Amino acid sequence: MRPTRRQFLATGALVIGFALAPRAMRAQSPPLPGSLNGNRRLEAWLRIDPNGTVTIFTGKIELGQGIGTALSQIAADELDVDLERIAVVYGDTGRTPNEGQTAGSLSVEQSGTALRFACAEAREILLTAAAAKLGASTADLRVSDGTITGPAGAQVTYWDLAANAHLEREATATAKPKPATEHHYVGQSVRRRDIPRKFTGGAAYVQDVRLPGMVFGRVVRPPSPGAELLSVDEARVRSLPGIVALVRDGNFLAVAAAREEQAIRAREALKQSARWKEAEVLPPSGEALYRELMARPAPAQIVVDKTAAGVGEPVKRLEALYTRPYQAHASIGPSCAVAQWQDGKLTVWTHSQGVFPLRGDLAKAFGIEAKDIRCIHAEGAGCYGHNGADDVALDAALLARATGGRPVKLQWMRDDEFMWEPYGSAMVMKLAGGLDAQGNVVAWSHELWSHPHSTRPGSSAGVNLLAARHLATPSAPVPPADVPQPAGGSDRNAIPLYAFGSVKVVKHYIAEAPLRTSALRTLGGYANVFALESFVDELAAAAGADPVEFRLRHLRDARGRAVIEAAARRAGWTPAKRGDGTRGRGVGFARYKNLACYCAVVADVAVDRASGRVRVARAVAAVDAGQIVNPDGVINQIEGGIIQSTSWTLKESVRFDRTRVTTRSWADYPIVRFDEVPEVEVVLLDRPDERFLGVGEGAQGPAGAAIANAIAHATGRRLRALPFTAERVKHALR
Amino acid sequence: MASFTLRVNDRSTTVDVEPDTPLLYVLRNDLELNGPKFGCGLAQCGACTVLVDGKPVRSCVATVASVANGRITTIEGLGTLERLHPLQRAFIAEQACQCGYCGNGMVMAAKALLDRNPRPSDRDVRAALNGHLCRCASHNRIVRAVQRAAAEMRS
């Protein structure tokens, strides 16, 4: 927290004046690359200080994906400074550009691109200033770690020039970023800057924020989504040791205490004494869930319907129905926030993926102006999408209104997280296809049913924060529209990249969801790729074709072909090899969102026919992410994506009865453990002259499909209902 | 409330708390140690692991009263940024995390393993860590980090 910067922003009349300029005036501004377009001031992105440091400001946040390291590599290269000089400030409504959510595998594409152009321009401005000072032409200057040397050997540094560098201007993006051949850091596996403190007990997470006078909060959620609070013995709980505040507002209950364990005991006492009226508002479980989903009223929307010229009639037709259950983000660390009210102004330390959208919804929830709220990023445990991070910020802020200005740290308990985080939506995918006499796909149809995949703050009118629904004056959000194509939400990756004769994709987007749903890594992409790539294998089998050959035959995109070929080669793919009843191999491919990285995965499985247990022994992935900023960072994302997808695919499903969510702890929601994870190899196809393509969500769909295809290859039985638990597999093999 | 004198990372501290207070909250809030994490409060995930007399203990369920006579070691007691323990150095070298929230438990369980078995097989490492959950799925990197540390500690 550097007051100088805050003061500057607070009094930056130029910035504010510009932001409020009429639309017509702004419309004349040419588009700028990446997030520079929405945050056009150069000084919003970087600051050069006389003390020899460079500070870069990103609206994105660190969530263990290593974005701070990747962005600093990009900035260091464009500026010609050592990496150690660069400090990173992450999403903070008081200090950084507004880059919306850190989501969609877009951080390097959006923030990285903006910083690349901003830093290139800053360098040019500094060189121009140096040229004047040294009496030389900019073309004759050389820069090394911020020291500029003229032709005669005279030198001046960025730090000398910092005070008069005049970065306070609108960016033009006219300075050309460096070619890949001149990069020192981009393309290198630079070690992540966030890791050392995480392994030495440094303050690394929002859980580690400690403020003077801080008290500890816990929330007492209803026992079920439809429950109403009838009564609770507030007096008894207020008399417990250490209680600082108890808030009861409609169905919202929360308690603050001097010590954390006192808050937890008070929570237990409130849970025991509270009487609730519950209702059967949840859908059925098992196969009935999917029948009910398909029966819900939702218009069929055509996503794509196209037929290539001269397409023949199918001689063989196939149809298959695939399902995916509700699945949880299941973060290892329950959601947490610290909130403090001072003079009617709210400050929140949060691991939200979008500090600006969160601020907007908090402003709506409290009926105050956004300028009176500051949301500051502090890392949480990995979130994998929209979990409880935003919700807990409102919980903490509601409770902090009752603590007389003392800050409140509120962390959810494990059952709060499992019962109340928004889940990845259950989905049904109905695939149909036809082959011609040569075994080529001439007809393809993909029809899907799904609830929303993004109900984040800011995604629709109303307050998209859980507690707002529970208050005496509730503020339920308007059900959001689906994320539109080309990225897509429920229909993400439902449009095949393959050149099939005719392609029809239809979605039934059911905006009203009985269980709250939102963005879980890939949105609908995981389920759609699982279905699409499973069905490609089913058609290949019907055509008597090898799955790799069949894909390549139908794929014209050269970069897509290259990752499939590279994964097959590294895995030692043997065409037309048959499974032996227990061991099998499968392939899956997608370009995430049909816009981001290309990824192919080959998985080897072993199926224990007696128990039904599936073990993924090995997975080989090939990835094309365009220009790679940090190879180890990409490998880490892909490895993690494959193993997480193995867990989703083999094990995960949220449990509930007609009234309550019954997934409360890790005992109810098993995830893969050390003895279950596959060996993973990642092949990177670096394309230094191509633009960045996001990788954070590239592997999940292909990995799930590869596992499904490997099980079918091993056993001859096609599994179409996720997850492939031992019980299900055993049943299928009977 | 009762008074307990705890030996944590070779220092003695006296705290006044209820005897059934989980050790985790004393470590995090009274001693301001960031290493041990709250993950589940149910001894299911391992993020809160510390060593008591060299043995891994889930501090989210171990009461202060139950550990009052033991030698407690947290990840802060293994090493510092300036003087890293081989396990800390290895986890950094292998970049063995994404979010890192589970990392404390992984390191502490690995410390207990290497103290009793300086030459573990990969299967031994996986068995020793099997009760620890990692959601970012850094498992294979974690196994490599433990083996790297084991090799350094043997040499």
Continuous helix count of chain A: 20
Assign an overall shape of chain B.
globular
Biggest sheet of chain A: strands, sense, closure? 7 strands, mixed
Q: Rg of chain A to the nearest angstrom?
A: 27 Å
The CA-CA distance between the termini of chain B, in Å, is 48 Å
Domains counted in the coordinates of chain B: how many?
A: 2
**Any idea what the CATH superfamily of the largest domain in chain B is called?**
Beta-grasp domain
* Spatial strand order of the main sheet of chain A: 9-10-7-17-14-15-16
How many strand segments of chain B?
A: 5
List keywords for this structure.
heterodimer; A: 734 residues; alpha+beta; Aldehyde Oxidoreductase, domain 4; seven-stranded mixed sheet; 20 helices; 24 strands; disordered N terminus; B: alpha+beta; Ubiquitin-like (UB roll); DNA polymerase, domain 1; five-stranded mixed sheet; 40% helix; globular
Provide the fold topology.
The complex is a heterodimer of chains A (734) and B (155).
Chain A: H1 3-11, H2 13-19, H3 23-27, E1 46-48, E2 54-57, H4 67-79, E3 86-89, H5 107-134, E4 142-144, E5 147-149, E6 155-157, H6 158-161, H7 195-198, E7 215-220, E8 228-231, H8 234-238, E9 243-249, E10 252-257, H9 260-273, E11 275-277, H10 287-295, E12 300-307, E13 316-324, E14 336-342, E15 345-350, H11 355-366, E16 373-377, H12 389-400, E17 408-411, H13 414-420, E18 427-435, E19 441-450, H14 466-470, E20 502-509, H15 525-542, H16 547-554, H17 558-571, E21 583-591, E22 598-607, E23 614-624, H18 631-651, E24 679-684, H19 700-715, H20 726-733
Parallel strand pairs in A: 2-3, 7-17, 15-16, 19-20, 23-24
Antiparallel strand pairs in A: 1-2, 4-5, 5-6, 7-10, 8-11, 9-10, 12-20, 13-18, 14-15, 14-17, 18-19, 21-22, 22-23
Helix pairs in contact in A: 4-5, 15-19, 18-19
Chain B: E1 2-8, E2 11-17, H1 23-30, E3 49-52, E4 55-58, H2 64-67, E5 71-73, H3 75-78, H4 86-93, H5 103-116, H6 122-129, H7 139-154
Parallel strand pairs in B: 1-5
Antiparallel strand pairs in B: 1-2, 3-4, 3-5
Helix pairs in contact in B: 4-7
